[in-house]
Amino acid sequence: MHPHEYYEQMSRTVRWLVLAIILITYPLHGANAVIIHTLLGFGAVYNLIRYDPKLRQYSFFSSPYHSLAIDHVLILALVTFTGGLASPYYLIFLLLILAAIALYGIAGFTYVLGAQIVIALLLLKVSDAPVPSQPEL
Fold it and tell me: What pTM did the predictor assign?
């Protein structure tokens, strides 16, 4: 089995597990519930598309790099709408770091570490958490 095929199988399985965990743990009627469930729906459809051998003939669907990039976008959107850096789902980014290391070695780690720094800075910038204007005495 080609390493990219093994990666593809494992990434689809991990993607299903992550989607299931989020579906189980996120409140059905919480804030942003419609947005989160829509993101989960997009993630499920994307994961189903990854099974189609006809679509995998196209470079966009056969490239693990594109898969990793789309996973980053989905997780970033999920984390943004569930609390930013305080999100309980922020640790899912660790799975993406591990995937990049498994696929691209130290170069993948360097790329994803740089992406994580940018993501953290973006989440700090768009954070909607209240920041006290004066320290409590």
Answer: 0.79
